[in-house]
Inverse folding.
């Protein structure tokens, strides 16, 4: 079975950075999806922090229909991330009310009704299911969006600080363990991550639902929080808004550490942020005891490993990142060859062998990515 995995499409983004709105980009992706038996949409498929849900779904309709048509009768697996966490919130609430057991590493179900069902319907396929918080692609390959890593970051992103604040309010030490979690049950840790991170996602989703009409400059609610906290609209601020799917707050390091919301570090360079994301994902693999030779994730928008790049390991587990499908000029170098944030990466998993990364848009220039080629 050939499985393709793509993440961080951010369809419906208010800032118009979602590349799959363009027919030429959809054609390039469709060519790579030809012949796959299963497609895993690995989180942040739809952007639910920029505008009300109905508007986001409307803007995502055409790209989702094209993706469904490209894979034909192949199975489609939806995995929620942090920007589209609302898709699984009703299901998570029902689980809690029904007193079901620990969330574990993979819960599989039919989309049903609600926002998850609406998104599945836009794909136009009868073979759509969801998996959360991740899915086993193969006995030795596990895939998840990667948003749990925010809890272990040493970078002061908006979400990192928000999660730390929730931990403090709940009486949980930074990064855990949860004193209310069942002892010696690693699977219960997924519920612990949800407990401390879901409130942050719910808050940011709620801000978007309160938005009416177009906003000046296309500033989404998350960026408005950034401006309120830092007063900055600089190029660096815009760049950081996409790193790790949230906003890094310079000047927040000392305050966060003094308030017990750390530890966070002052180095906010792209290199430091990339390293922090890999390290944090390694901690998630360790905490959840993911027994896999390979773990595939997205979330950080930083594709990899590239070439012989070192450091992409968590003990014996090899880490892989599916990058992003958004146009963020401030993160791009002169060409794909020198840019780890160049969009258009997907992972392919066959019946055997390690995952393979395909860089679908590497043949495009900066001008072509901007739609000017």
């Amino acid at each position: 079975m050939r499985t393709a995995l793509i993440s961080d499409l951010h369809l419906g983004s208010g800032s118009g950075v979602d590349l799959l709105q363009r027919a030429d980009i959809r054609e390039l992706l469709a060519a790579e999806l030809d012949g796959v038996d299963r497609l895993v949409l690995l989180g942040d498929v739809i952007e639910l922090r920029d505008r009300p849900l109905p508007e986001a779904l409307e803007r995502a309709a055409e790209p989702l229909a094209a993706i469904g048509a490209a894979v034909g009768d192949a199975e489609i697996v939806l995995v929620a991330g942090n920007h589209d966490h609302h898709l699984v919130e009703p299901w998570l609430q029902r689980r809690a009310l029904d007193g079901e057991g620990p969330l574990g590493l993979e819960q599989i179900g039919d989309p049903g009704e609600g926002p998850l069902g609406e998104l599945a319907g836009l794909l136009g396929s009868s073979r759509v299911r969801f998996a959360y918080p991740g899915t086993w692609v193969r006995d030795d390959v596990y895939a998840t969006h990667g948003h749990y890593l925010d809890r272990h970051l040493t970078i002061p992103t908006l979400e990192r600080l928000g999660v730390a604040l929730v931990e403090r309010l709940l009486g949980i030490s930074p990064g855990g363990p949860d004193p209310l979690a069942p002892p010696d049950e690693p699977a219960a840790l997924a519920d612990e991550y949800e407990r401390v991170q879901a409130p942050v996602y719910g808050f940011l989703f709620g801000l978007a639902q309160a938005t009416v009409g177009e906003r000046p400059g296309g500033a989404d609610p998350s960026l408005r929080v950034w401006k309120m906290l830092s007063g900055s609209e600089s190029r660096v601020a815009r760049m950081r808004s996409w790193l790790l799917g949230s906003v890094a707050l310079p000047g927040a390091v000392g305050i966060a550490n003094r308030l017990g919301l750390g530890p966070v570090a002052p180095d906010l360079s792209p290199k430091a942020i990339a390293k922090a994301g890999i390290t944090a994902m390694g901690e998630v693999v360790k905490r959840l005891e993911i027994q896999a030779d390979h773990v595939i994730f997205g979330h950080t928008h930083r594709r990899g490993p590239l070439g012989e790049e070192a450091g992409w390991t968590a003990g014996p587990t090899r880490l892989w990142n599916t990058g992003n499908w958004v146009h963020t000029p401030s993160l791009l170098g002169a060409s794909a060859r020198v840019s780890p944030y160049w969009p258009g990466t997907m992972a392919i998993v066959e019946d055997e062998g390690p995952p393979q990364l395909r860089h679908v848009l590497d043949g495009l220039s900066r001008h072509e990515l901007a739609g000017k080629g």
Q: What stands out?
A: Confidence is low (pLDDT under 50) at residues 215-219, 223-247.
